[in-house]
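Late entry, guanine complex.
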Amino acid sequence: MAAQIIDGNKIAAQVHADTAAETQALRDRHGLQPGLTVIIVGHDPASQVYVGMKEKRARELGFLSQKIEMPATTTQAELLARIDALNRDPRVHGILVQSPPPPQIDEREITLRIDPKKDVDCFHPYNVGKMLIGDTDGFYPCTPYGVMVLLERSGIDPAGKHAVILGRSNIVGKPMMALLVQKTRGANATVTVCHSRTPDIKDHCRRADLIVAAIGKAEFLRADMVKPGAVVIDVGINRVDDPAAKRGYRLVGDVAYAEVAEVASWITPVPGGVGPMTIAMLMQNTVKACKLQNGVKG
Ligand code: GUN
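Prediction complete; structure with ligand written out below:
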């Protein structure tokens, strides 16, 4: 059996179309323009690419889109001062500081300083707590939120299913657990979280109806770890050396795609699966932030 492919590019495009329509409606009915400011400290090439994509997409959707580039020598006090100014600026509804920052920056303090109402990454403990208790007027972290939307728009209902999450990061594994276990439409899964200290990961995976792989190990999930008919979502992006490739490497996920696709019922590719959804959900969060800050319902 060959799995059906969950096309993240197609679903992200649908989400962007919804975001553009909501943005237009905010403008027409309320005279509002969602504002997103992305801060990058230093010159990490991969972060530069990601930040550029976020800034461009926000502009294309009709947002007030701002990229702030700060030198690699930026001090904690300088970055905090920038955040304080953005917190006070009513045109800015969402603030994101690209991770990882240079080593002199204390990321935890930065996360706490961003106004929770503008925390479109959902990194602030206030929003993480809201997500955990099922409050819907905060935000969800963009990548696990993107996974939930991929499932929903593919007609896959996690209710009553046994979901196994590989990885317990604060950005993906833990919030993925919180979203899948919620008592709400599109969730209601029974969730197991596996990590580096879990014995018998293979046994857990083989009992899973849904596997979300976010463990950061190239092609970790093999076909013999997957129950026939399971849904497999691959959050990983890993570089592996490939002398035949133009750049000398290629990108692979945490799933051995070709062999797992023979066993699974649905699967996300890498690239073109979860990746495009992260930016799509960031834009949705920014529209939500704009609405919440201006008392717009719906
Ligand atoms: N670096 C990699 N992914 C992310 C993300 O989702 N948000 C931020 N702020 N930094 C990142």
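The first strand starts at residue 4 and ends at 5. Will revisit in the morning.
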